[in-house]
Amino acid sequence: MLYWLTEFTPELPLFNVFRYITFRTGGALITAVLFVFLFGPKVIRSLRIRQGKGQPIRKDGPERHLLQKQGTPTMGGLMILSGVTVAVLLWGNLQNTFVWVVLLLTLVYGAVGLYDDYLKVTRQSAEGFRGRIKIVIEAVAALVATAVIVHASQGPLATSLTIPFFKDTLINLGWLFIPFGAFIIVGAGNAVNLTDGLDGLAIVPVMIAAATFGFISYLVGNALFADYLQIHFVQGTGELAVICGALVGAGLGFLWFNAPPALIFMGDTGSLALGGALGTIAVATKHELVLAIVGGLFVLEAASVIVQVTSFRLFGKRVFRMAPLHHHFEQKGWPESTVVIRFWIIAVVLALAGLATLKLR
After folding, report:
1. Biggest CA-to-CA distance, the chain
2. Which residues lie below 8 Å from residue 243, measured CB to CB, with a gap of 6+?
């Protein structure tokens, strides 16, 4: 919204500052932080009253969770999504197609997660939305988002897959790029969802990934920097840095209340939406494979569940003491804080490795 003030630059040169993506990214970050700080306590009180017993705790999970986390309200993702939406609408260029695609996909995934959380709370059961229906809705939204991204992009790059470390390598998938992009978005959403199991575990890696992709978006959307780094230029994607700034800011505000012991859980409302946002940004910036590096922690968590389920169904044996992976280390005796902080460290290292792909080509 504030971007429109640039139209008055000839009369008021000061408004020219709103042309700079870096300035508006910082503004979005600060706005999102303040919004969550200011309204977070009211949201938590309201959810605690409305939910009563709070989020149901899995009976097949670690026993400690049944004692220490019972009664904690969920749907904290509403705080994050509200902060992100306000910040993006205020600081983003609303004429940019990529901004609307990412924002709307994020809100759709947030709505799916909200309904899932609602069913869990009202039924007081860890089982929420039927899995198949949930995946179908996510897939349809992701297919539409990818199709719009392809339409908004230019030339053969629109349907091509770029390969990290190789500056000239493009694999043109044609129309198959749309289901491929949808797979990335759906996978990212559910991978973050699986990671959200301990206080502060998911939100910090999400912020790290968002900050990383904010930097990538800015470079990919700038012709000069893209040419210097020999990465593929995608016009208009620089504006996604504003969304990434809002994600980081809202995440910081939420972490204040989600730090151990958590006053609120983000629930599927937040985890699905945040993962979907990261996946959509990766597809738009043509860095889908880099997301697998930067978000490697989410990939490991999702892979641990797949391996565990597959091994048990085929051989009747479990590879891990408990899945997802963070519960495995809890069962080995690691304190929750140890698991969380060590996973944060892994997320930082993987983000640095992802950034290294920008130069090593």
Report:
1. 73
2. 28, 84, 88, 92, 99, 102, 103, 277, 281
Calpha distance 295→287 (Å, rounded)? 12
Is residue 3 domain-resident? no
Contact at 8 Å (CB) between 336 and 258? Answer: no
**Residue at 309 is within a domain:** no
Return the DSSP state at 55: S
Name, in order, each residue with C-beta under 8 angstroms of 328's C-beta and a sequence gap of 6 or more.
Answer: 304, 320, 321, 322
Q: What does the pLDDT look like over 203-255, one tens digit per residue? A: 999 999 999 999 999 999 999 999 999 899 999 999 999 999 999 999 999 99
In a domain, 348, yes or no: no
Helix axes 177-195, 131-152, angle to 10 degrees: 130
- pTM of the full structure: 0.93
In a domain, 306, yes or no: no
Reported as a single tens digit per residue, the pLDDT across 66-107 is 445 677 888 999 999 999 999 999 999 999 999 999 999 999
Q: At what angle do helices 267-284 and 177-195 cross, to 10 degrees?
A: 140
d(CA 217, CA 166): 18
Q: Which helix (H) or strand (E) holds 54?
A: none
Decide: 344 and 149 in contact? Cβ < 8 Å. Answer: no
- By residue range, what is the domain housing residue 120? 22-286
* Total domains present in the chain: 1
Helices (H), 52-91: 63-68, 77-91
CB 17 within 8 A of CB 23: yes
In single-letter form, the type of residue at position 311 comes to S
Task: Give the CB-side neighbour count of residue 111, counting CA atoms within 13 A.
Answer: 9
